[in-house]
Each structure stands twice: as C-alpha cells, then as structure tokens.
Amino acid sequence: MSAWKGDLMRPSRLGVLLLILLLGCSSRPPYQGRSVAELERMLADPDPRIQTQGAYGLGLLGGEAVPAVPSLALALKAADPLVRQQAANALGEVGPGAASASADLATSLTDPEWAVRRQAAVSLGRIGPAARSASEAGLNRCLRDPHTLVRKAAQEALAKVRG
Fold this sequence. Notes:
Layout lengths: L2 H7 L3 H13 L10 H8 L4 H14 L7 H7 L5 H14 L7 H7 L5 H14 L4 H11 L5 H14 L2
Helix pairs in contact: 3-4, 4-6, 5-6, 6-8, 7-8, 7-9, 8-10, 9-10
C-alpha cells in the first residue's frame, strides 16, 4: 500500500477532534424539554450549576414560567452570583407576569456583583410600569453605580417603568 493510501485510511487528528466535538455537542442541555415544574425543582437543587440551568430554562419559557416566579424570586438570594443573575434574567423574560417579584429585583439592585445589579435593572425594565413603585428609587440610585453597564441599564429601565 502506498504511503498516500495509508494516510487516507488513518484518521487525522483534526478529524478525530471534529468527531469528538460533534458527539459532545449532540447531547441536549439539561434544561431542554423540561416543564416549568421540573425547571423549578432544579432551582431547589443543592448544586449551583443545576440551579443556574433551571433558571436559564425558565427564562427560555418566558411568560409560561409565571408559576415559577416565587421560586425565581427566592433564587435571587442564592449564594452563587450566576444563579442570582440567571434568576433575575428569567424574571425579566417572564415580563409583566413577574410583577410580584419587583421588590425582590429592586433589592438585587444592591447586589455586590455588578452583573446581578445590571440584570436586575434590565429585568425591571422588561416588567415595565408594574414595577415602578417597587423599583424607581433603586433604579435612580443605580444611575450613580460605579459600573457603566449598570448605569446604562438603570437609565433604560427607568424609561420603561415610567411608561
């Protein structure tokens, strides 16, 4: 057999790497295809990675996740900042149906992590005028936040909650 034919029969390193990547990408994410109740149970898991996945999945469901709003509001107090950020995002994706969590999101405007503060502001804006009474003072304080992205999110959110 010629050297050239032997090379064709041997998988290249790139080919093996591509195969591994394709096989690794074919598994579905843990939040995909789950019900609101299943995703809500993920929020109660002791593993922050699973909590984050549950919050993310609920965010993808948008308004369908209204029954999980109390659990998402509770997740805003999680020890892990990524869980808090994803819970805030999910509440914003629920939109006006998450108005009952406005006070909890307003409390998150003082979170030690700037990304959580920013996401809380964005989410309050997505909830809109229903969040005004709970959030206006906190959003005004965020206009002086040391992080530019938090200030910008607060400014945009104020315009939305004021209607």
